[in-house]
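Interim report, section 4.2 (structural modelling).
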Amino acid sequence: MRYRVAVTTIRDLARLADVSVATVSRVFNNPEVVSQETREHVLRVAARVGYQPNESARTLATKKSYMIGLIWDTDHRRPGWRHPFLQEILIGLKTALSERGYHLLLLATSEREDSDKDVYLRAVKRHNLDGVVFIDNGTRDPALDVLAASGVPCVSLDRPVSGPRTTYVTSDNVGGARSAVARLHARGCRTIATITGPVRTRPGAERLDGYRAELAALDLPYRPELVVEGDFYLAGGYAGMRRLLDLPHRPDGVFVAGDEMAVGALRAITEAGLAVPEDVALIGFDDIELAALVPPGITTIAQDKAGFGTAAATALVEMIDSAEDEAPPPTVLPTTVVLRGTA
Amino acid sequence: MRYRVAVTTIRDLARLADVSVATVSRVFNNPEVVSQETREHVLRVAARVGYQPNESARTLATKKSYMIGLIWDTDHRRPGWRHPFLQEILIGLKTALSERGYHLLLLATSEREDSDKDVYLRAVKRHNLDGVVFIDNGTRDPALDVLAASGVPCVSLDRPVSGPRTTYVTSDNVGGARSAVARLHARGCRTIATITGPVRTRPGAERLDGYRAELAALDLPYRPELVVEGDFYLAGGYAGMRRLLDLPHRPDGVFVAGDEMAVGALRAITEAGLAVPEDVALIGFDDIELAALVPPGITTIAQDKAGFGTAAATALVEMIDSAEDEAPPPTVLPTTVVLRGTA
DNA sequence: CTGAAAGCGCTTACAG
DNA sequence: CTGAAAGCGCTTACAG
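Predicted structure of the assembly:
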């Protein structure tokens, strides 16, 4: 006993209610199978003594823990990595999962070696996790593929993975990027540049695709010098914008593939003595809190942040509850354009 | 069997290694008690078959789960509540806890009723949690007091709680506020105002205390009209600053008790056509990411964000490992002043 | 509708 | 140093 709280076991409760432990168990797991009278009686006694089934014992017996592992690699290979809206995702996940009776276990896997191909799978087995959600950190992690291949229900955020019971949720990056370019064009921009995310990341690559697609749709030429690769951070946006401003024929509109980079880009423009949006219009991506706070407000493509959590929870529970080895199709969340001061 | 992964039990391993299950168990929990030869042999076989002890069974047998509950009430009574640096705290906690062998379980307690005085305690019992960390959300939650009183090891962030095995970690809010006022004074400000946090919150009240203390130390009069209460959000900072600017004798320096409010205050000053820091100097609190990003950069009192996680983990594990009913003293993290453009 | 019993995968006195 | 056995708190066929 580690704390002073009296802990009532199913055996205690059975004795107090004068029934067998099997009956008590049924009252909680299969209520329809026990007579109304005994059921109510047991429930009453249970409430009086504050009975709580021990989840470890339950998990041991059923192989189901009602716990979902959250893989969110905070310091492996990329110490400074920050998710643009982790808090929103966590809230969405936690809420949606708890409505379905699941808890979230933050898997601490920081001190592992690179060669360790099944850290995650091991953790899943050890803790009898029912499923896993994986938050992409932009690095290729072989341990994730091992997990996905294992048949453990698994949903990934912003990073396609394949496996018998694996799916992912992502924003409509292509569509979002297209509407950004379209908006820039509609307000008169004719030389539209982009500062991309790292193109090895999925969102980075897709937003660039969208940029090109919309250019084509608008009959605007694609000019490689108008495309500079950023890093999703402020510094990359700043540096990227500097390069664009140095061009002999500078752009009058820029689609910046992330809001934090957009803040950097904005700063570069201002420092160059140019006006936003008059000289250069700017549209970001994400709609992080910061976007609304930086004057004059960054026009941006908003992602459905809470939607990530809800969609992930739904897909996960669907796979967990299904006997089949089949995964729901990827969820693609729509984006919306939020007009503010920069475009 | 919920997934296709072969799961080796201690029994399987014992058979394969040709020893008893007791010996296998000892190899993992009490290695020094088994002969080197058998130990190495068992370890070798274990590695070959990828043996993983089942944590649920282990918890059932030992009453120790190596899981810490995280109480972070996201939507109870205050839907829009956001922590200024939750992500940093989570990273710090997760890292420090994992070094000590613990995992973090996000307790989902959203759909409870107000009258439910022991949601947390129940969750702790159900899941055999070894301890709990509680992130303050500014509301008084009776369920927390019940938990603290129960004897479950418990550390609270930024909110004093008392109980046999309870402590808390907080920043030196008084000291931080004092150094802010001192800095303002040092750069020449003589009419120093403050925009406080909600004074019913601990950090709000303490930072106001610090403001008053430093005023007194500097022999500056305390003038109630120079104190306006904010809400820790941008809007409160903006509104508070508007009121201060309307004063017949407006302040030349303002200590704003949170960075997000400081951004709002900065905006109000700019809109009024005044210059920062020339007309009004500004110092915030927290050092959130935003503070560095908003031109000209907000001078602020930085909190040791990672320190919260580390200190909480240390205190928690200390209480868990101790047989006594005694809690380590509260941790008060030092603050540092970060000079940027506003003061 | 209900109970007795086996089993989930571990740990830990108790003997030897 | 090692093994046989009881026990942790549940669930779930199997009988009745």
